[in-house]
Amino acid sequence: MAKMIFVNLPVTDLARATAFYEAVGAEKNPQFSDGTASCMVFSETIHAMLLTHDKFRQFTPKAIANAKETSEVLICLSADSRDDVDDIVGKAKAAGGTIDPGPKQDYGFMYGRSFEDPDGHIWEVMWMDMAAAQEAMSSSPEQVGA
């Protein structure tokens, strides 16, 4: 069985956050959603658990970071093409997100952009031609920052 990832994100308005993630292409799984959480499915292996602050606090005693002011994590999703990257970022903008909070990345073999959701969580969207990336990295590894 493939490993799965569940990214848990605290949100201030569960309905708004759910609508935002549906707009960028995730599907809500009602089996794992209620008035305190929405399980947003990007693929069979990638899920974002949107949690109200009260629900999020049940999992950690730490203070919840204000993602609009503090970097907490950068999450990156793969895309099937350069056009898909632009499409997802465009959907995020149309749904009320902030686009390209960081610089666009274009290395020819790799193309990436990002968006910020209404709660300030940053998602990167990246396409890569794996064969060209391996060739570029083997001939010039300093070309792409880590």
TrEMBL record:
Keywords: Lyase
A single GO molecular function term of this UniProt record: lyase activity
Bilayer-crossing regions: none
Domain VOC: 3-128
InterPro entries recorded: Glyas_Bleomycin-R_OHBP_Dase, Glyas_Fos-R_dOase_dom, VOC_core
Keyword Manganese: no
Pfam families: Glyoxalase
Official protein name in the record: Lactoylglutathione lyase
Organism whose genome encodes this protein: Microvirga brassicacearum
Organism lineage string: Bacteria, Pseudomonadati, Pseudomonadota, Alphaproteobacteria, Hyphomicrobiales
